[in-house]
Structure formats: C-alpha cells, structure tokens
Amino acid sequence: MQFVKGIGPRKSEILEKYGIRTVHDLLLHVPRRYLDRTSIVSIAELRALSPRWGDGEEPGRQGDVRREHTVLGEVRSFRTLGGGAKARFVLVLADATGSLQCVWFGGVHYWKTMFSVGETLAVSGQPSYFGSVLQFIHPDLDRIAPASGSADNDGASEQWMQKLHTGGLVPLYPSGQDLARVGLDSAGFRRVISSTLHTFGDSAPELLPASIITSHSFVPYKDALKSVHFPQNRGELEDGLRRLKYEEFFLFQLKLALKRRQAKAETGGISFSIKSPLARRLAESLPFSLTGAQKRVIKEISADMQSARPMNRLVQGDVGSGKTIVALLSMLVAVENGYQAAFMAPTELLAEQHFGTLARLLKDLPLNIRLLVGAQKSSVRRDVLEDVRSGGAQIVVGTHALFEKDVLFAKLGFVVIDEQHRFGVMQRAELRSKGTNPDVMVMTATPIPRTLSLTLYGDLDVSVIDEMPKNRKPIKTVLQSDAGTDDVVEFVRAEVGRGRQAYFVYPLIEESEKLDLKAATVHFRHLQDKVFPDLRLGLLHGRLARDEREEIMRRFKEREIDILVATTVIEVGIDVPNASVMVIENAERFGLAQLHQLRGRVGRGNEQSFCILLAKAWIARNAVRAAKKGPEQLSMDQQRVAEERLATMVRTTDGFEIAEVDLRLRGPGDFFGTRQSGLPEFRVADVVADADLLQEARGDAFALVEEDPRLQNHQHEQLARHLRSREAEEMMLMDVG
Ligand code: ADP
Ligand code: MG
Fold first, then answer.
1. What stretches of 137-220 show up as alpha helix (H) in DSSP?
2. Do domains 277-306+322-444 and 476-652 have the same CATH topology?
3. Distance between CA atoms of 664 and 530, rounded to whole angstroms?
4. Which residues have a Cβ under 8 Å from the Cβ of 722 and sit 6 or more positions away?
C-alpha cells in the first residue's frame, strides 16, 4: 500500500470529506486560479483604483471597487479588536507602496493562530474603506512565503517568490478552514501536490486511445497533470486543462454510452398495439387541435410503446405547452391494450388537480380513473387499493403514495411521472418494479438546457414539446419598485373589474415555517382589509388541510374568489385559465426557474395576461437597466444575480432561454436545488463553460461504443480496465488498515 508523503490520518480524514480519497483524486484537486506578476496590484495602485464612496451613495454601484484585486505583501502586525459577538481580527499587510487592513468578523481564535509577522501573503478581495483606511473584508488569502529565517522556510517558498518575480505562475488551491487547520491551506496543497506529482505523476495511466489523442492533439495525460498544477506558461496551462476536462467528460459519457447501449438491447418490455379508438375519440372531442410538436412527441412515444424495449423517455415542455394531453393520449393506448396506467405527481395538491383535469377530459369515455394520495380516509383508500389490485381501476393518479408496499397493481403497463426532478432515481426504479416492466414517461416543465440534458439524461430518450398552442398571447411582464404599488393595486382592480382573476404570490422567507406562515397570513389580512376590502380574497398555503386547500382552489376556479394570495404552493401545475394577473412580491428572493414556473400560472387562456414583479427599489431600477442592455457575462455578486434574474424575466418568456441563464447564474450543482439532482460532479470541467468540449467528448464516446461495444479493441484496453475496477485499482492516500 502506498503512502503520500505529508498526509497522515488527520489530513486524510478531512480530505475525504471533500471527496479526495485517492492519489488520483488529489491530483485532480486543481488550482482555483494562478497568480502571476500581471495579476498583482500594488497597494498604492489599489488605492488609486478604488475611489471612496460619497455619503448617501447606494452600495455596490462603484465600478471598479466591486472587482477583485490581489495584493502581495508582508504581514506587519495583527490583533483582535472588540469582544464577544463583535470581536474582529485585523491584520496589517504592507508592500513597498503602502499598507492596508484585512478584517475578519468572527473566528478570531482561529485567525489568531494562523499568521506570523514577516510572512508573505497574496490577498484577494474587493477593497473597501473604513474612514480613510483601505480594507479587505474577509479576503481570500494565500501564503506565499514564510518570514525569512523562520523554521518552516524550506526553500520551496523562495522558489515561488522567485517565480512571481520572473513572470512565472503560482497555483492557488481551493481550501477551507478545516483543511487549513491541518496545514492544507493553499500553500499546503502546493507542497503536497508537488511531492505527489513527483512520486506518482509518471504512473498516471494513459486511458484515451491513441486515435483520440491524435485527433485532438492532446498532450499526454501525465504531462497534462503537471502543467495544470505547475504550468510554465499560460499556453501550457490551457493545453493541460483542455486534456483533463475532456477526459472527465469522456469517461462519464463513455459510461452513459455503454448504459444506453445496454438499455437499447434490453427486451422484455410490453409491445403495445397502438391502434386506439379511445385516444382517437378523445383527440376528436378536444376543443383545439394538437400542435405539431405535440403530434411529433406522441409519435415518438407510440414508437417506443410499440417496441418490446421498455420505454424510458423524458418529455420536456415549457409551462403551458400541453404535456398533460400528450400523457393522457398515451395512457389511453396502454389502457386499450388491457393494461393499467399510473400518473404520478410531485404533491398531493397537484395529484388532486391532475386527477380533476383527467377525469374531466375522460368524462364521456367508459373509463375508471382513481385517485390515491396519502391523506385519504382509510375506507376510501381500501376501496381504491382494491380497485387497483383487481384491475378495475384503469388509470390511477397519485403521489409517491403509489410506491407504497400495499399498492399492488393487477397489470401496470404505463407510468407517467410528472416533474421528475423532484423524484429520486430510486423511486422510478421502484415504480418500475410494480409492473411487468412498464413503459415510463417522465414529464418536466423545467426546460433543461441542452448542455445539461446531455449529462443528466444521457441514457434517457428525450422528446421536446417546443411549440406553444396557437393563439396564446405572450405574457407581458413588468418590474416595479415595491415602494409605490398604488398603480399596481389600481391595475389589478381594473382587471378584476373586467371579470379576470389575480394571484398575489408571497415568498416563504423565514427559516421557520411557522413564522413564515404568520407573515403570509398577516399580509393576506392586510390585502383583504386595507387594500381590496371590496374584493373576495383567498389564502392558499401548504399547511392547510387537504379539504381546505381543495375548497379554496374550487372557489378560485369557480370565480368565487377574485384574488388568490398564495405561497409558492401554486408554483407547479395549477390551471385556472381565467386568472390573468400574477403579482409576485419580493420577487428578488425567488429563483429564476421558480419565477418562470409562477408566471406560467397565467397566460393559460385567450386573454392578455400580465406578470408584475415587485422588488426593492434599487434592485428593480438596476434590473430594468440590465434588461435593456442584454445578458450579463461577468461573474456577479448576489445583488447582481438577483437583478439579472429579474431582467431575464422581463426580457423573455422563452423557458429554454431562461433555463440557460439560470444555469449560468446558479452553477450546475445548484440547478435543480439540492443533491437529488443526480447531477454528476466534475472536478475540473464545467458543464456550462466547457459545453463545447462536452459535446466533442460525447460524440467521441458514443462513436467508440458504437464501433467497439465491448471495448475489446486493444486500443481500448486501458479504458476497459479502468471501467472494470476503478475503485479497487486506485491507490489510497492512506492505508486504512
Ligand atoms: P403543461 O405542459 O404546462 O402541463 P397543460 O397540459 O396543463 O400544460 O396545458 C395547458 C393548457 O393548454 C390546458 O388548459 C390545455 O387544455 C391547453 N392545451 C393543451 N394543448 C393545446 C393545444 N394544442 N391547443 C390549445 N390549447 C391546448
Ligand atoms: Mg402540467
């Protein structure tokens, strides 16, 4: 068993938290950026670049002040100021041209132990002023060299100083407090990785076949590793990065390609006959004709259903594109073949609503459709379960309650899963196991940028409903300061006067659901008593009992309520075509995908619909400006991100465009919220920034599997070995025994 010099049990335990378990993982811990002479400013230059804010200026609008700058200097002194909750740690850094302060609020006991006078730091941050004192608040820092003559000056750091002075590049590594505490700050990583590369770098296997290396003019893998960590120049760095990123994408896509090939070869699914008089009757009874996109997607699904290969298809379509009817027509085919179909929604509210919609559409057809949700009375539940078990229920609509053990289907043949990103992958497998290998159709209203669907759904077939029903009027979206809302109130009143209905959406802000609910309730009372005393308002939130919720929705649908005040429970799927105004309060607090989903609740009828976004005055002002300018390319702070989200909403109603912006603003890891995204994490590559490379790697990987599905060609030997035994083969950082 191999050991890496300088990594003991303490370090390896913390590294493991960051997913670094093997030598190879460590070598893929790549620098977050590189320092060179041109990226450093002197303190005097920094002072000149950073004009002081005048009194009364709104924060955050001062051009250059918001940019990150890096200063290289020596630690002159440091001390702790204040006490208790107000304690702060202040460090004075100086170079030949002047000095500045680095300030940390909190964590003083930690910082106290981290520095010594005389050592050289590279410090990066956005400068600000406290009085006339130039400061970095909570800067990033990197230890470049210890004080001369200090005990841990091993000569290596001198080498880095030398590098900087001669125009070389110094790698700065991502780290964190817990890592720094065990010596793995950026400088620590530089040391450990340098020695690891020295010892193991040459044994890193060359996985890519020679043909790919040649056609892309890649440098050898081991050279790429060296140049990414310790590049001689920018060109070398770029070549190295390109190789590492490509390799990450390629290996991932290779696995997808193999999985997909396997799925294609699978049989044992149901081969449906796609003649369906019922579906025909339904299609003919609709008050509209299907869009071209709907017809195309139905064809794609039909082909899957006919084939004996189990269907595994994602249907993507923006809000209002008409996914429900596509699902229903497909379910009817299954039913007519003597199978049951299940329709699964992410929440009870939505399951109930889908049930209502489907039942209404099916009312003239001889079909038995049932609802199964957790909150049903046990007598009702028993009855539904029996109906499902006997096969009497042909279509069953429900939530995850459909997965429960006591739910037995007589003959499940088709499954529709709505809003897939809310479900884990495991549940899908579970549902599959409930039938005789049923066909599965997953629907999502979250338009997924192509770059992402390639990585996420590489092993699913994807259909896109990319056309809206005709005679829909695009929703008009405006952004308003929440300071003066009188005209908004008048506007809503006028629309209601014309027989329309409106939503007021209120975000959940507090961490405690209880407090939140209180805020929403208070707000509702205010609107009802003070603002719209003459109108009928309803309040909808997730904590209401099912029958109360249902009752409010029913009253809103039947126009007994003019204005529905709601928390985000109305986000997905609620369908009231007569509602034509959506007012979103504190809009800056919502995510972009969420705003788009919310807006999709209006514009569902033939009337012109409106979306009014209310935001803090300065955010609204800047966002309106940004909307005129076009998409922003720079990296952004939080406020700018909020502005850009709102600007995007004003600029477009195109879900795919919105999704692209969202992905860029949030970063892929966060795109679907949390972990359940199932999104692969890449260490070096970035699915957004490196989308082109991803495409290339995907093309190459799929072509390779096409040509050599079992990876038997001797050129693919290393790849095959890598895939077979990745875990076992890799050198661990530490001998766990
Ligand atoms: P989503 O894709 O958001 O689930 P729905 O399936 O709920 O969209 O459809 C939105 C509305 O559009 C529904 O009221 C539906 O009846 C209607 N609709 C669906 N397809 C068409 C079409 N081809 N032409 C006109 N209206 C349609
Ligand atoms: Mg829907």
1. 156-165, 177-181, 186-200, 210-215
2. yes
3. 41
4. 205, 207, 251, 729
Report how far residue 154's alpha carbon sits from residue 68's, in angstroms, rounded to the nearest whole number: 31
- Ligand 1 and 290: CB distance under 6 A: yes
Taking the CB of residue 146, how many other CB atoms lie within 10 A of it? 18
Q: Could you report how far apart the first and last alpha carbons of the chain are, in Å?
A: 10
Q: Of the ligands numbered here, which is closest to the C-alpha atom of 327?
A: 1
323 Cα–ligand 2 center, Å: 6
Check if the beta carbon of residue 529 is closer than 8 Å to that of residue 329: no
Which amino acid residue places its CA nearest to atom 17 of ligand 1? 322
Tell me the CA–centroid distance for residue 568 and ligand 2, in Å. Answer: 16
What is the model's pTM? 0.71
CATH class of 476-652: alpha beta
Ligand 1 atom index nearest CA of 471 = 25
Per-residue pLDDT tens over the stretch 185-213: 888 899 899 999 998 888 888 999 999 99
Q: How far from 185 is each of 145, 416, 417, 461, CA to CA, in Å?
A: 13, 49, 46, 44
Tens of pLDDT, residue by residue over 681-737, are 788 888 777 888 998 999 999 999 999 998 999 999 999 988 886 544 444 444 332
Lowest-pLDDT range, 324-333, 441-450, 583-592? 441-450
266-307 residue pLDDT tens: 777 899 999 889 999 999 999 899 999 999 999 999 999 999
- Distance CA(622)–CA(627), nearest Å, equals 9
User: What CATH number is given for 277-306+322-444 in this structure?
Assistant: 3.40.50.300
Q: Is 727 exposed, middle or buried (0-12, 13-18, 19+ CB in 10 A)?
A: exposed
**H runs (alpha helix) in 337-377:** 348-361
- C-alpha 594/C-alpha 571 separation (Å) is 7
Look up residue 599 and give its two tokens. 């807006």
Q: How far apart are CA 140 and CA 33, in angstroms?
A: 12
Which ligand is located closest to the Cα atom of residue 579? 1
316 lines ligand 1 (CB under 6 A): no
User: What are the residue boundaries of the structural domains of the chain, listed by start?
Assistant: 34-172, 277-306+322-444, 476-652
The ligand minimizing its distance to the Cα of 604 is 1
Q: How far apart, in whole angstroms, are the C-alpha atoms of residue 385 and residue 380? A: 9
- Distances 592 to 445, 622, 734 between C-alpha atoms, Å: 13, 17, 44
Would the CB of 324 count as within 6 Å of ligand 1? yes
The answer to whether 488 touches 615, Cβ cutoff 8 Å, is no
Architecture per CATH, 34-172: Beta Barrel (2.40)
For 536, counting Cβ atoms within 10 Å of its Cβ (0-12 exposed, 13-18 middle, 19+ buried), the class is: middle
Mutate to test the pocket of ligand 1, among 286, 297, 316, 321 (most ligand atoms within 8 A of CB): 321
Q: How far is the C-alpha of 640 from the C-alpha of 95, rounded, in Å?
A: 32
- Is residue 325 in contact with ligand 1, taking CB distance under 6 Å? yes
Helix (H, G, I), strand (E, B) or coil at 224: helix
Is the CB–ligand 1 distance for residue 353 below 6 Å?
no
